[in-house]
Automatic annotation (TrEMBL):
GO MF terms, alphabetically ordered: 3 iron, 4 sulfur cluster binding; metal ion binding
Gene3D superfamilies given in the database record: 3.30.70.20
The protein's name in its UniProt record: Ferredoxin
Species for this entry: Streptomyces shenzhenensis
Keyword Iron-sulfur listed: yes
Amino acid sequence: MHFKIDTDLCVGHGRCYTLASQWFDCDDVGYAEVKDVAIGDDERAHAEDVAAACPEGAISLLQG
Ligand code: SF4
């Protein structure tokens, strides 16, 4: 599993990197970036919650 951010939708609320700094970082102006960190199978539920917490629907959780 990995995250993908639609940069056309991200407006930089910062919820993702506040909720899950282990998986997300921000650039110099607050837009989200995905860290190159694996998501364990036991972390799936939390990863889904974090993706769902984006008000813009900019975060997808993809297999592989
Ligand atoms: S929560 Fe969504 S809109 Fe906000 S910084 Fe993260 S990806 Fe961007």
